Amino acid sequence: MPEGDTIYRAARTLRKAIGGKPVRAFRSALPQLADAALVGTTVEAVEARGKNLLVRFDDGHTLHTHMMMVGSWHVYRVGEPWQRGADRAFAVIETDDWLAVCFDAPICKLLRPGERSPQLDALGPDLLDPGADLDEALRRLRQNDELPLGVAIMRQHVVAGVGNVYKSEVLFLRRLDPFAPVSSVSDEALRDALLLARKLMKQNVGHARMRTTRRRFGSSRLWVYGRKNEPCFECGTPLDMRRQGEQGRSTYFCPRCQAG
To answer: CATH number of the domain that 231 lies in?
Structure first.
């Protein structure tokens, strides 16, 4: 699933292509969006909110998308061949020179002017938002004291934008046990983990390929994620992976460096 920095990068790409431009055509393979009256409006803003991407139009409508595991936004010059079929194009925003196409997004809906989205309203602080309230994120973590840290930090109503990769990398770098309850971790350690997550995400917004390691590790861009059974860069212990939470999300960790 795309994490917060990936969505910010997608929003920036869309903003450059269609931001501030009149909509010449809008179409969708989804019946509920097929008749959306957006032609003649102007793309007022393209925003990332955690893992959500929002396209706002000057008539007050907002297209709300969430990629989950399968969706993606593409931009094409008018007339350029698409990489996927039109039957998978859940939203096509066409301007004079560019098309922004949302493929396969499990959430793709149009919010009416003034309509609130319970999903968006429930989001926790977005770590890539310059005004993100880390005190509020810490408070929300504390409201989930009984949960394992690796589960709580990925709850989007606690803190928005953190996914499997950043969860695994940050908890390793701060030597925190992902399976220990939040209640066992100090406020100072939790805040430090949030600050590191924000730092790493900001560093990666400008890069197509995520990196959390130092350059001396060469092609190994991540400390633990995706490296099950490979040696830990710090202690040499084989890394492990376990599933966490109701959705069975993957958590990579070092059994020695992160021992509780």
So the answer is: 1.10.8.50
In angstroms, rounded to a whole number, what is the distance separating the alpha carbons of residues 59 and 41?
6
pLDDT over threshold 90, residue 219: no
Q: State whether 116 and 218 are in the same domain.
A: no
pTM of the model: 0.87
User: For the chain, what is the radius of gyration of the CA atoms?
Assistant: 20
Q: Which residues are catalytic?
A: 2-3, 51
The rounded percent of the chain whose pLDDT value lies above 90 is: 77
What pLDDT sits at residue 218? 64
* Enclosing domain of residue 18: 4-121
Spatial separation of the C-alpha atoms in residues 103 and 84, rounded to whole Å: 8
Structure tokens belonging to residue 211: 């990196």
Nearest of 201, 193, 195 to residue 172 by alpha carbon: 193
pLDDT higher at 177 or 162: 177
Of 70, 89, 121, the residue at which a domain comes to its end is 121
Q: Are residues 106 and 181 in the same domain?
A: no
- Can you state the angle between helices 187-204 and 4-18, rounded to 10 degrees? 40
Question: What is the DSSP code string of 29-46?
Answer: SSTTTTT---TT-BEEEE
What number is the average pLDDT over the span 111-132? 91
